[in-house]
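TL;DR need structure tokens for one chain.
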Amino acid sequence: MKTHPKTIRARRNRYLLLVMLVLFVGALTYAGYWWHYCRFRVVSHNAFVTGNLIPVEADATGIVTQVLVEESQYVNKGDLLVRLDEHRAQTALGQIRGELGQVVREIGAVFSTHQQMCQKLIARSARLARVRHDVSRLRQALPNGSVSEQAVQNAEDQMMALEAEMREAEAELKAIEAKVGGTSRNLHPDVEAAKYKFIAAYLEYSRQQIHAPVSGYVSMRKVQVGNRVQPGDSLMTLVPLEHLWIEANLPETEMVRVRPGQPAEISVDLYGKSQIYHGTVEGIVPGTGSVFALLPPDNASGNFIHIVERVPVRIALQKDEIMKNPIRPGLSTMTSINVKESDQPLGASLTEVSSPEYRTDIYVDELADAQAKAQKIIKDNLVQKVDPPEPMCKSHESGAAKKSGVSR
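>> reply
TL;DR here they are.
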């Protein structure tokens, strides 16, 4: 049976009307969705997971004798990672230990010489005072004829010789006092210099064992047994996965409403849209990616093309979410920022440096240990443990002259 053309036309109109109705409802639904949700959202697919990548570098010279970790292993702060051949450093430390002890003994000898010169000056001062008294009595007895002029002349010559010896002794004493004045045996500058030379050698020796500065997962291991490393050579990288954030590169045309403190939703390609991470905008990087490039563009050269620049935005992630569903730096994400409201100014920053990877204390005891060992070496080489009170070494000549009343 052949269908009438009017029936076909009526059926086609109904289908078209139904399609138009579906399209209208879809458009109306999307308009409502955009009005209530999308117009307050800035979405970027140019967003990646990032975090702190902690480099582990050599701080001493040596040959690698043992590597104790491998990539993907988790290490705690302070764990031993690499051991270097410590024979050369140990030999240098022993040599400088001996030099420190030698300097302490030499300075002790100088202090003893200073005391000896003081005693010598006191003895010569007493002899000079006695001779001056003798000269004074001989001069008084000369007019009476009790003594001869020769005796007086001999006494005066002896007095002049003793005065010259006194001046010589005083000069020697001043030379020694220039070395030891105002200090003690264990605080003498030469001892201090030798002590800190020992401390530097001790630190060089202790750095032959390389420890983890923070806790994290081992990555990018470059060191091999047999490598000769120098200070600054990269050995491996530690990645703490407890503190990660998102770096979303947003077009500059969409940055006008982005502010710190705004909430964000992130889906990582690793899990798909079934797992949503919740974050907060912490801050906006003060510059586009082009100005921080290795070769920034020179627009003044005339080769100018107007392109929309990207501005990095840092978005903090919640620690409990990334611990429950672990992610890694470098993963791609789809990031949506709710820009409806924020009470933070554009230049504000909510970033903090309170997580453990911003500080390490694995070296905090090294200097104290080195100083304690140096002090022990100094103490063991002090023949005279305590400096005795200094004898009176000055002003004896003038005091004796005043008592005797003899003028020159």
